[in-house]
Amino acid sequence: MRKWFATCMALVLALTVLAGCSTSAPKSSDQAGGASGGKKRFAIIFKNTGNPYGEKEMEGFKIAIEELGGEAILKAPDQPTAEAQIQMIEELISQKVDAIAVVANDPDALQPALKKAMDAGIKVLSLDSAVNAKSRMVHVNQADPERIGRVQVQAISEMIGGKGEIAVLSATSQATNQNTWIEWMKKELEDPKYKDIKLVKVAYGDDLRDKSVSETEALLKSYPDLKGIIAPTTVGIAAAGKVLTDKGLKGKVMLTGLGLPSEMAEYIESGVCPWMYLWNPVDVGYLAGYAADALVKGTITGKPGDKFKAGRLGDKEVIQDGEGSQIMLGDPFKFDPSNIAEWKKIY
Predict the structure, then answer these.
(1) Per-residue pLDDT tens for 103-114?
(2) How far is CA 281 from CA 28, 208, 212, 242, 267, in A?
(3) What count of Cα atoms within 13 Å lies in the side-chain half-sphere of residue 303?
């Protein structure tokens, strides 16, 4: 009897050990899609912190990713440098995220890090400010760069009566989108109808409020006959609006460019900036979120002709973009006294 009992106990112990061995091991949280209960993880890196436009863009990205059931990771360095973004890309590679969307501080400097990400199986795209075609699978463009550049020159020309000195207050000197728009501005200025307009300076405020204020003040000091400023950056145009207001230059130095309605409403309503342009940065981020998801799912590969559904934005198609490809959001939108009160409540 004692022998039989010992045999039974040994059998029970053996079964217990076997049962323990068959228990599934937990998934590692650093596997792609391993965090948050298996959710896919999508990261966006903006140019720098403290930029209202960037905050809205990241907000749109987050909304899209959460609609799709994924986890959004929002990142931005303190300063708008390529080096800071490279460090963040390296961190995201080690975390094995599923996709990285980047608003580039430099079109070429990020290439080694982004190529490393793609080699690791991470889907890479740029939005707003592009990286070169070898550094990403597709680019999400907020509007036609030619239309953006030309329309701002057309606006300032109308404001100053087609005659006088103008300047451009840009973001960083390496910003892909800014430089592309400025090139189209210069092409527009080649038209004989602008023969009495002279572009005297392209200044760079680095998308920093204080520096943009200083650069605006420097322009006014260096060019006392300046008639207009084009600021194709939300930080720059708001800074210029404040300087022109504080110095009582309404109607003497005209201002246009790309701005956030909430930040520019007072200057449009006062007449310091008769009108300006932009698109909805929330929509830019939102479209990038859906594009990232489509890349991860394999719905698109980034080749021209690929199509996908972008939530409330409807059907979108990948089109040719130089050596690479892009997805276009839409045309720039004009904000003026007739509609600014409505839009300033939105973003």
Answers:
(1) 999 999 999 999
(2) 35, 18, 21, 22, 20
(3) 4
May I ask the CATH class of domain 145-278?
alpha beta
Q: CA 200: distance to chain centroid?
A: 29
Q: What is the CA radius of gyration of the chain?
A: 26
Look at residue 237 and give its three-state secondary structure.
helix
One fold for both 35-142+281-330 and 145-278?
A: yes
Please state, as a whole number, how many other Cβ atoms lie within 10 Å of the Cβ of residue 280: 20
Q: How far apart are CA 167 and CA 198, in angstroms?
A: 8
Residue located via tokens 């793609």: 118
Q: Give 208's contacts (C-beta < 8 A, 6+ positions apart).
A: 48, 80, 235
Cα–Cα distance measured from residue 299 to residue 297, given in angstroms and rounded to the nearest whole number = 6
C-alpha of 307 from chain center: 21
Q: Find where tokens 């030309």 sit.
A: 150
Q: Give the per-residue pLDDT at 331.
A: 87
The hierarchical CATH code for the domain 35-142+281-330 is 3.40.50.2300
The yes-or-no verdict on residue 23 having pLDDT over 70 is no
Domain-by-domain residue ranges, the chain? 35-142+281-330, 145-278
96 DSSP 8-state letter: T
Which spans in 160-233 are helix H?
Answer: 176-189, 209-222
Question: Is residue 303 predicted with pLDDT exceeding 70?
Answer: yes
For residue 38, name the pLDDT band (cuts at 50, 70, 90).
confident
* Contact yes or no for 200/165 (Cβ under 8 A): yes
pLDDT higher than threshold 80 for residue 21: no
pLDDT in tens, 284-295: 999 999 999 999
Q: What is the pLDDT of residue 37?
A: 59
With a pLDDT cut of 90, the percent of the chain lying above it is 87
